[in-house]
Design a protein that fits this description.
8 strands; 6-stranded mixed sheet; alpha+beta; two-stranded antiparallel sheet; single chain
Length: about 120
Amino acid sequence: MLNGMNRGAITPEELEALHEDALVMRDAGSLIGIYDARMTLVAASGERSIGAEESARHALALWQGDFTYIADPLTVIQVSDLALIVSRDCISVVRRDRDRCWRYAIVRQFPATTGGTAS
């Protein structure tokens, strides 16, 4: 995924790191690769995007300029092929797909972090 590699995240924590890398590198292709095809991203404003491509564009718009997404999960709760990730910036539901790689299904940005974490 990142840098054209076809490997995915083997843990929810690694998925967070891949998410940060893709946002910092402004790599829409990598974001699409780690987002479920039907994923939903909900911004702090309440604006929603549905689908991997639309959500990748939305994420790049949310976390830009002086705002950076930091992969620093406070809590990861995993049950089988589902996990809940809570961080300072957002809460996410991720799932392990048929290829055994983890992908984002839902990302909800917290209102207090409009635009992400200041760098």
